[in-house]
Amino acid sequence: MRPSMQRLRRALIELAPRIYAESRLLRNLRMLDLGSGVDPGEMPIPSSDSGKWFSVHPGSRWGGHDRTAWFHAVIEAPDAWLAQLDEGEQAVVLRLLLGRGSEFGWPEGLLYVNG
Q1: Res 52: pLDDT
Q2: Number of CB atoms found within 10 A of residue 70's CB
Q3: Contact predicate 63/103, CB 8 Å
Q4: Distance in angstroms (rounded) separating the CA atoms of residues 1 and 67
Q5: In terms of Cα–Cα distance, which of 86, 84, 87, 54 is closest to 71?
Q6: Which of 77, 103, 109 is nearest to 90 (CA)?
Q7: CA-CA-CA-CA dihedral for 48, 50, 55, 60, to nearest 10
Q8: Residue 34 near residue 68, CB atoms below 8 Å
């Protein structure tokens, strides 16, 4: 039996608020543009103390064809989230929308946690 569109729509409306029950904005996001033709896997992670980093905000333009950039931010999960993790009830997810550029397609990303 195939569910009707109305049943699917109702289920999605009910499920949507539970997908990301709580969220925090990522503040103090900084970027270091390395240029074109640079393979990030071939170089060490740049020091976050370097003066070449600059702040980026939602809606900022960045990137381009075959360009590499590093992003850096420090975030902490609230104690309530960590307590839920210890109890095995929830998961903490980083949802970072990198954007979409018509001139270079979808950006790719790698995430390093705690270095």
Answers
A1: 86
A2: 19
A3: no
A4: 49
A5: 54
A6: 77
A7: -100
A8: yes
Query: Helix (H, G, I), strand (E, B), or coil: what is residue 101?
Result: strand
For residue 92, report the phi and psi dihedrals to the nearest 5 degrees.
-105, 130
Mean pLDDT of the chain: 77
The encoded tokens of residue 64 equal 């381009």
Identity at 85, one-letter amino acid code: L
Phi/psi for 5 (5° steps) reads -60, -35
pTM for the predicted model, two decimal places: 0.64
**Sign of the torsion formed by the C-alpha atoms of 112, 100, 28 and 26:** negative
47-50 long-range CB contacts below 8 Å, 24 or more apart? 48/72
H/E element, 67:
strand 67-72
